[in-house]
């Protein structure tokens, strides 16, 4: 009898932990990034996270640099609870994505990050949820979504559910902070300060058919720096080997 009860509880717990299966792949793909692109960059961003704000221009420029046939940039939103308005912003992202068929999703993100301070905890401390939604509707109007349509969809159960599913999915990937970066499903020890050139040091070798640079022989007077597994640079005098980055003064 005890064993039977245990099995029933175990099955029930397993079903409760099942993340709802979305009707389409999750995330917001930049500029039609192709599914068969050799490099997939998935970035888990906080809608109101200053570090995500810092990383956003770099990763979009990186996607432009390689093009959608080579690099598929996909942003997943992870509303952090200590940014009180972040879930509302994430919902707004889904609204804009739905209304504009994904065409203005990244412009919405850009405009949100440009107005980050106005949506902070301090700036909205005395504002109600409806007042915050009204502020978001003004931002939505800059990407062609009318205030009435935006506010109506912000109360749509499907928008709410899609936002929750995205959050739960991100948790299932082991993400606990933003921004978090994965290249071809592998976690990369990058941070918001990385430049396009820093990223190219990780991505370029993935696109090369030549043997790995791990056999690089550095000239006399330089030192070998393995800044990522198999990725080698020759540091000149005065340069140090910085983990995950390479040679830097």
Task: Describe the 3D structure.
This protein has helices at residues 2-17, 50-66, 86-99, 105-114, 129-141, 147-153, 157-172, 196-207; strands at residues 28-29, 39-45, 71-77, 180-183, 186-188, 223-228, 231-235, 240-242, 246-248. The protein contains 8 helices and 9 strands. It has 249 residues and is α+β, with helices and mostly antiparallel strands. It has 2 domains: 20-188, Glutaredoxin, CATH 3.40.30.10; 213-248, no CATH class. Strand 2, helix 2 and strand 3 form a beta-alpha-beta unit. The termini are far apart. The chain has a 5-stranded mixed β-sheet, with helices on both faces. It has a two-stranded antiparallel sheet with strand order 6-7. The chain is elongated, with a radius of gyration of 22 Å.
Helicity level, as a percent range?
A: 40-55%
The whole-number mean of residue pLDDT values reads 89
Q: Within the CATH hierarchy, at the fold level, what is the topology of the largest domain?
A: Glutaredoxin
Using the 3D structure, state the CATH architecture of the largest domain. Answer: 3-Layer(aba) Sandwich
The domain tally reads 2
Structural class: alpha+beta
The CATH class label of the largest domain is Alpha Beta
Number of helical segments with 4 or more residues: 8
